[in-house]
Design a protein that fits this description.
Elements: E1 3-7, H1 9-14, H2 17-23, E2 27-31, H3 33-40, H4 44-51, E3 60-63, H5 67-77, H6 95-99, H7 108-138, H8 141-152, H9 159-171, H10 187-205, H11 210-213, H12 216-238, E4 240-242, H13 246-255, E5 261-263
Parallel strand pairs: 1-2, 1-4, 2-3, 4-5
Length: 266
C-alpha cells in the first residue's frame, strides 16, 4: 500500500522526471488548495513543469480539502478530523492536463476565481497578522528568543500547553469544536501549535509590528510563509511530507513523531 504524503509546490517544481518515476511506486501525493493556488498564479512554463509531474506515468495523487474545511468538519462533528487522506476530494482530474500545457492561457473566468481565492487568503492573513499586534507590544525580541528556547526544549509538544492556547482563543471568541481536550489528531491542535512557533519566530525577526504591517516586501514574504505553514499543518496530520524547505523540515521533525516521514530531492 502506498504511503500518503503532503507535498509543497517547490518540491514538485524541482522534482526530476527520473525521481518522480521512482517515487510513484511507493507514494501517493496529496495536493492541497495552497499548491493549486500558488502554481496556477505562476508563469505558464513553471506551472506546466509542476503539473506535468502529476498523473501517470509519474506521480500518483489526490486532492485534499483546505484547512478551513477540515476545521469546519471538527466543529460540525466535534471530533478530530485525523488524516487529510480520509477526506479525499474527488475532482475533475482532466484539469491537470490543461495546467500541464504551457501554451494554455488562463481564462478571464479562471482569473476571477483566482482573484477571489487571493482575496480570501489575504483576509485570513490580515486577520492573523493583526492578531500578532498585541503579542509584539507585550513581548520584546529578547522575550521571544527566550520563549522560543522553551518551545524548542519541549514546551511546543506539551498537550496541556497547546490546549491552554486553544482555550485562550475560545475565550476571545474563536469558533472551535467543543472538545474537552484537543489531541495531535486535531487540525485545530496542529494549527495553533504551528502558529505559536510562527508568531514567536516573527517576533524574533522584526523589531516592531510596523516592520511587518507597513512593508509590502515583508507582507509578500509572510504570504509565502503562510502557504508553507498550511502545508506543514496538513503534513503533521498526515504524518508524511515532501519538501526541501529547511525551516519546514526542522519544524516537521520537531513537531512530529517517529512515524513521520520526510522526503527531499537530495
Amino acid at each position: 500500500m502506498k504511503k500518503n504524503v503532503i507535498t509543497d509546490k517547490n518540491f514538485l517544481f524541482s522534482l526530476s522526471t527520473d525521481k518522480s518515476l521512482i517515487l510513484q511506486n511507493e507514494y501517493k501525493f496529496l495536493i492541497c488548495e495552497d499548491l493549486l493556488y500558488e502554481s496556477v498564479k505562476d508563469e505558464s512554463e513553471k506551472r506546466a513543469k509542476i503539473f506535468s509531474k502529476l498523473g501517470r506515468p509519474y506521480i500518483d495523487y489526490e486532492f485534499i480539502p483546505i484547512i478551513p474545511k477540515l476545521i469546519k468538519f471538527e466543529i460540525t462533528y466535534n471530533k478530530p478530523c485525523a488524516k487529510p487522506s480520509s477526506h479525499i476530494e474527488k475532482r475533475d482530474y482532466s484539469i491537470n492536463d490543461i495546467l500541464a500545457n504551457k501554451s494554455i492561457k488562463i481564462t478571464s473566468e479562471q482569473q476571477r476565481v483566482l482573484r477571489d481565492l487571493e482575496d480570501d487568503y489575504l483576509r485570513q492573513l490580515e486577520f492573523i497578522i493583526k492578531g500578532f499586534c498585541g503579542y509584539f507590544k507585550q513581548n520584546s525580541q529578547r522575550d521571544a528568543t527566550s520563549h522560543m528556547k522553551s518551545l524548542l526544549d519541549g514546551k511546543i509538544n506539551d498537550d496541556e500547553y497547546i490546549n491552554g492556547i486553544i482555550k485562550e482563543h475560545e475565550i476571545y471568541g474563536a469558533k472551535l469544536p467543543t472538545l474537552s481536550f484537543f489531541t495531535k489528531e486535531s487540525i485545530c491542535y496542529r494549527y495553533f501549535q504551528v502558529h505559536e512557533l510562527w508568531k514567536t519566530d516573527l517576533r524574533m525577526r522584526y523589531q516592531q509590528f510596523e516592520d511587518i504591517y507597513g512593508n509590502p516586501k515583508v507582507i509578500l514574504k509572510i504570504k509565502h510563509d503562510y502557504h508553507d505553514l498550511n502545508y506543514l499543518i496538513l503534513a503533521l496530520l498526515e504524518r508524511g511530507f515532501a519538501t526541501n524547505e529547511k525551516k519546514l523540515i526542522e519544524w516537521f521533525k520537531l513537531l512530529g513523531d517517529k512515524e513521520n516521514l520526510i522526503i527531499t530531492n537530495s
